[in-house]
Amino acid sequence: QNAWKLADHPKFPKGKTIAMVVLDGWGEARPDQYNCIHVADTPTMDSFKTTAPERWRLIRAHGSAVGLPSEDDMGNSEVGHNALGAGRIFAQGAKLVDSALASGKIYGGEGFKYIKQSFDNGTLHLIGLLSDGGVHSRLDQLQLLLKGAAEQGAKRIRVHFLTDGRDVLDGSSVGFVETLEKDLSNLREKGVDAQIASGGGRMYVTMDRYENDWNVVKRGWDAQVLGEAPYKFRSAVEAVKKLREEPKANDQYLPPFVIVDESGNPVGPIKDGDAVVTFNFRADRMTMLAKALEYADFDKFDRVRVPKIYYAGMLEYDGELKLPSHYLVSPPEIERTSGEYLVHNGVRTFACSETVKFGHVTFFWNGNRSGCFNEEMEEYVEIPSDVGITFNVQPKMKALEIAEKARDAILSGKFDQIRVNLPNGDMVGHTGDIEATVVACKAADEAVKVQIHCFDCGRVCCHALVLMLLFLLIPFSCHLVGDNEFVVACVFPRTIIDAIEQVGGIYVITADHGNAEDMVKRDKSGEPQLDKSGNLQILTSHTLKPVPIAIGGPGLKAGARFRNDVPTGGLANVAATVMNLHGFEAPDDYEPTLIEVVDN
Ligand code: 3PG
Ligand code: CO
């Protein structure tokens, strides 16, 4: 118990209600037409920067700041939320797999020995995301694994790939499949029967997350395990090229297909005695398949046939569930997270997002651990996401519902920390639809706080005095305001910051990585880069950009501001910062706090 006890902070008092808001995919970049955050009307986020610059700054959210192998690695939600919650930087899955492959240790591990049992009589199946995005998996790791498995005695190998277009440019799938085909043909020359067996787009086949839509996993299961799919091809390159010709087709959503032999039979259904490796290192979008492959009791869809296999994940995907039971590389041990400390120190926590980001503020935040630390002190609320759509058609997503849940939790007085993720900038940014992403950014901004616009001056009038004046004037001069929402805002708190203001609390607004702030691929000088046909290359992926962090609210100690001696601060510095705001010193090994109090 004592090991968990945090020292009192000498300056920050305890007992303040803190709203911890993560705007997913919200970075800071040059303000041009491809920066959707700049184009969108985002008065709340703008106001932090302009009205209280000593309580607004940028922090690093990519590369080494979040435990990724290199500074060329863009940030992502897994490593971003891990860093935010854990307060330290852990070498992440991508890096751990790199070193296990480089040293060869992967082949001596328990997981590899387990799958090796299939090598004499069975087939080794490799299932995962085929790209060099480095978010869920990496092509070069797959290539090394293929080579290593063959050297270790695998005689028959089948690859079931998912095309990307979300962490890499749309259309890049063809090149990745060609590269893979070359590698497999090299293996065939060495006498290994190695082939691609099936494929499909990651968002339509296999890689769902947080149990949003089991049909996605079922489509993959049918192709990978049963060898059944709506499309059959003799070659995977041909499959991807052909399926991309369909109107509106893209890499993320390609339909499932299987590769068949000359008699039309699938070349690689998964059978008894085979081994399966899911080669993604990131957990969220592999967990559902891992359950389908491993659980005897399973009722999410009809698996039809459940082969007896040797299954291993590239990593262990869930430390709490011990899923899967076998894995090739041990995951980062992210322990003593801020969430666990705070619960031990009496901080009652509420966490909320919609399904597609729910695990980000719970599972990833808590160091890849599902469930609460203490049911009595924590409540995690999931708002069901819309299923079966791409979010450019619903760019507002559930931002308002999340904000209202947070508002109610703040006003309830039952919680000390209210933590939410607003998914819009990221989920809509990934669609590459610039117009929709602009709408998404506005929706996220409004979820933080609805601002009042004056029709006459077009400016944001958010001070209580102005609000009250407008409130008095409304019956006589309705033309002054955009709509009458401000009356509601004035009397009843609508979203997060209104509620924080009402209870005298503190807000911390930040993001996990960039996305919506840059929607085009750029050359070295930062100019939009055109493809061979002269078209703009739309960036669906995350970015290398830093993200903003703002703190404020009536409960914030006077004189509190960002220190200027942590210039390279990143997401991992946020945990100590939030612990301070709760009135505690952070543990010694946490990255330093970003804040200080200057006495007047
Ligand atoms: C995804 O899984 O949607 C993307 O690959 C990464 O996005 P996220 O890191 O924002 O979840
Ligand atoms: Co994303």
TrEMBL record:
EC number(s) recorded for this UniProt protein: 5.4.2.12
Signal peptide: none
Pfam short name (any one): Metalloenzyme
Family note: Belongs to the BPG-independent phosphoglycerate mutase family.
CDD domains, sorted: iPGM
One Gene Ontology cellular component: cytoplasm
Cofactors demanded by this protein: Mn(2+)
GO biological processes: glucose catabolic process; glycolytic process; response to blue light; response to carbon dioxide; stomatal movement
Keywords for this protein: Cytoplasm, Glycolysis, Isomerase, Manganese, Metal-binding
Subunit relationships: Monomer.
Domain Metalloenzyme: from-to ranges: 16-449, 495-585
Protein name: 2,3-bisphosphoglycerate-independent phosphoglycerate mutase
Known catalytic reactions: (2R)-2-phosphoglycerate = (2R)-3-phosphoglycerate
Residue stretches making up the BPG-independent PGAM N-terminal domain: 98-318
EC class (word): isomerase
An example Gene Ontology molecular-function term: phosphoglycerate mutase activity
Pathway assigned to this chain's UniProt record: Carbohydrate degradation; glycolysis; pyruvate from D-glyceraldehyde 3-phosphate: step 3/5
Main location: cytoplasm
Species whose genome carries this gene: Salix dunnii
Cell location: Cytoplasm
